[in-house]
Every structure is written in structure tokens, then in C-alpha cells.
Amino acid sequence: MVEHFLAKEDVAGSNPVSRSPLWRRRQVVRHGSAKAAPAVRVRSSPPNKRRGSAASLFFFTAIFSGQYHQMREQRSYSTEAIILKHTDLGEADRILTLLTPYKGKMRVVAKGSRRPISKKAGHLELLCHSQLQVAVGRNLDIVTQAQSIENFFALRNELWHMTCGFYLAELIDRFIEDDTEHQDVYRLLLGSLKVLDLDAEAAQKRRAEGITPSEYDRDRTRLLLRYFEMYLLSFVGYEPVLRSCAHCKTELKAEENGFTPTLGGALCPNCSHLWSQALSVNALKVMRILQRTEWAQIPAFRLDARLHAEIESAMHGLLRFHLERDLKSWSFLDMLSVQR
Ligand SMILES: [Zn+2]
To answer: Of the four listed, 97, 133, 235, 321, which is most buried by Cβ atoms within 10 Å?
Structure first.
């Protein structure tokens, strides 16, 4: 019996002529009634009663056989994920770009997640760290259940920290290819979001006590962005060259050196004709520390604005060279930095 239904569906699905009455009826109802008209109204008020019974039979057959077909084929899996990006799909759905520990970056559909009554929506916000149940779909997999592990509430309520978080997500979206495992990148993002969240929480507490955020706090967050960029580049195979000259391979000394993104890093004074910017001793020192140290062990530097701008310029040059474009978040981060 089931085989009969499946065969019937396949034939019906492959033949546009046999589908046309149903399609036409559904179009008529969609245009003629309220947008949210439930499927049952389509069946209970057909515009053509003579054809209605046959079409209804076909409709039920297609639904039941289709569901059975799906049940037979459908597999699902559980994964934790960080939500990097979302795009609206249709009237109530969303396509989410996720970073997962074992499947890398992937896109899934979250059906109905834009409806106000959606139970999943709160667990699928941008930057949310969630546990998901995902069904294998024909094109994109489908989120069937979502439960947030950490929603980074403090981060979400501080514009500066939230923008920094979005920047990290944008970097990952640009640098990481789909469906490739990147556990190191996943841990880097999760760890950085936790640091941002704690910083945001501390900033909120200080504000509640009447203390305005200090320059040092802002610089620490900016340094975290440089740290993230440095590690991300290394994890994807573009580790900046900071120990020896990127051109002649001579070991770099504690003197003014140079930096050229197109050559992948720092250059010695002998290769100064290839420099695109000078790199001070302190800038090289800080960049080397960022490259080789876990965030928790990085000393509490107090970088002046010029030194930070120098490091930022070198790092952004590298990112721009590898991506062949600027990142959208840069201008917004710059704007917030100026406002501060
Ligand atoms: Zn050199």
C-alpha cells in the first residue's frame, strides 16, 4: 500500500500536468483569502466543487505519502552551535549560518522562528551558544529543537561589546569555508565571546556604581579583537610572519622594522624598499605576544592610541589582503571608537 502511495507521488510530482489543478486551487485561495488562512480552509472551501473531491483525495495522498517518505529517509543529529548570521526566508522562516565544533560552518533553516510565538526564536539569536537538534533536509538541514547554553546577555546589552561580537562572527563567516571541521576556531570564538560577555558585565556594574568606563577597558577589548584576528589567521593557514623577515628570512632585531601584508608579515630594515608601513619595536613585541600567548596570560598592557592604531593597521592590512575586501563591521567599530 505504501509502495503504491510512493509510486503515485513520484508520478504526480514528476508530471506538472497532474499537479496543476491542485496548484491552481492553492493559488486561488492564497490570493482570495487572508494570508494566514489555514490549510484546512483550502480544503473546506474549494472554488470548484466538482473537481474538489478528486483534488482533495490527491492532496491527502500526497501529504501522507510524503510524510511517510520523509519519515523513512529523515535522520537527525544533535550539535552545539554559535549563531553567526541569519537571513529571512519567506514569511516566518530564517536561514541561519552556524559555527559548530565538528561540522564547521553550516547553513540551516529555522522554520517559523520569526513568529512571535516561536519557542525556538529566543535560543537562535545572533551570537547565541545553543544546543540544537537538526533534521537532515533535502537541501538545507532543519532545526527542530533549540536550547540556549549561553545567550551572552550582558554582551547583548552593551553596544560596543555586541558590535565586537558581530565583528568576530563576520570574520569567521568570511574566512571559514562551509562543512569543514574547525574545532580550534570554534573554541576561539566561544572563548572570545565569553571574555566579551564578562567585560560587558563588568562595564555594566561600573556604570551602575557611577563609574564611567576607562580607556584601559576599551583598549583591552580592542586588544582582544587583535588577538582573535591573529589566532584566526593562524588557524586558517595564514599565520603572520613576525620572527624573521618575510622577504629575506633574516631574524628580526629589536629595532624599527617594517610590515607588508602582501608578503605576509614583518620585514627587516634591509628590505625597507618593500615596506608598506613601518613597524615599531613595541608593536612587533605586542604582536608576537598575541601570537604565542593564551588570552588569560596576556599581560595587562597599557597601549597608547598610536601604538594600537599601528597594530590594528597591520592586522587589518593582512585581513584585507586575504579577503580582498574590507569588513562591514570595521566602519561601525571605528565610529563607536571615535564616539568613546
Ligand atoms: Zn629582509
So the answer is: 97
Query: Which residues lie below 8 Å from residue 262, measured CB to CB, with a gap of 6+?
Result: 276, 321
The reported pTM is: 0.76
Quick check: is 119 in a domain? no
* Cα-to-centroid distance, 269 and ligand 1 (Å): 7
Q: CA 26, 31, 37: angle at the middle one, nearest 5? A: 70
Q: Residue 74 domain-assigned? A: no
Q: Ligand 1 centroid vs 315 CA: distance in angstroms? A: 19
pLDDT for 121 = 80
C-alpha of residue 330 to centroid of ligand 1, in Å: 31
With cut-offs at 50, 70 and 90, classify the pLDDT of residue 312: very high
CATH code at position 192: 1.20.1440.120
Which residue in 241, 248, 285 sits closest to 265, CA to CA? 241
275 CB neighbour count, 10 Å cutoff: 19
> 256 CA distance to ligand 1 centroid (A)?
12
Q: What residue has cell string 529555522?
A: 110
pLDDT given at position 54:
53
Q: What's the 298 CA to ligand 1 centre distance in angstroms?
A: 29
Q: Is residue 208 part of a domain?
A: yes
- The residues, ordered by sequence, that sit 6+ positions from 269 with a Cβ below 8 Å of its Cβ are 255, 256, 257, 258
- Whole-number Å distance, alpha carbon 250 to ligand 1 midpoint, is 6
- Quote the ligand 1 centre to 273 CA distance (angstroms): 10
Q: Is residue 57 part of a domain?
A: no
Ligand 1 geometric centre to CA of 243 (Å): 11
**Distance from Cα 312 to the centre of ligand 1, integer Å:** 22
pLDDT for the residue numbered 34: 37
**Cα separations in angstroms, 74 against 54, 132, 301:** 29, 16, 53
Looking at the structure of the chain, the number of domains it has is 1
φ and ψ at 59, to 5 degrees? Answer: -60, -50
- For range 105-112, the mean pLDDT: 93
